[in-house]
Write a structure and sequence with these properties.
- By secondary structure, this protein is of the alpha/beta class.
- It is built from seven helices and nine strands; from the N terminus they run ααβαβαββαβαββαββ.
- Strand 6 and strand 7 form a beta hairpin.
- The protein is globular, with a radius of gyration of 17 Å.
- The chain starts with a helix and ends with a strand.
- The model has no long low-confidence stretch (mean pLDDT 92).
Length: 229
Amino acid sequence: MAQQNEWDQEYKSNLLVTGSTEPQNDFKRFLKYLKKQCKVEVETLRVLDLGSGTGKNSIFLAKRGAVCTGFELSTTAIKIARKRSLESDTNSTFIQRSFGEEFHFPDNSFNLVLDIMSSNSLTEPERKIYLQEVSRVLRPGGHFFVRLLALDGDKHAETLLKTRPGTELGTYQLPDVEITERVLTEKEFRHYYEPFFDIIKLERKSGYARVSGRIFKRQYWIGYLKNKV
């Protein structure tokens, strides 16, 4: 499982992740979109949370009646997520595995999949499997919420691509945490996702990320997608 040790160390040191138990506002806005525009209630959701970390998004949904399953590489993060889920008495399951491998679920198992800052760490072969498998396990017309690092307009990413390039195109290695990230242009985002999903909304937004105690302005893609099959 690519970068398992690096992510496990990160969840022990918290140089990159915030440790917050509250979902980001972008995700909360997406849930409002589901309710108001799509007439989808949270309690009807069967959710697959890819790169679920310490479980904040899954547990937030499960508290409101959703049934959630999380995939996470880090042993440390899985332990924290399971403890939080038990303490909150929610219907959440957390599994230690990569989502760059074939999923073990039947077709059409979920009506919502989350990728919130997770697939940035996949290799190109893993990314191909991830997209195919999300489409397979997501019900026809099911929703896919994606938040990823954008290259467009991101000066920090441009610097890292020059000074700390990774082994694949569009990748760099973060200093101190030794985690490899992939940043996407809008053209690349559409290239990867449009064969499998209808892109209902794609927005580039600015935000701030903490790395080793320093704050950097970053650019993100916020995608509202629906399964084509």
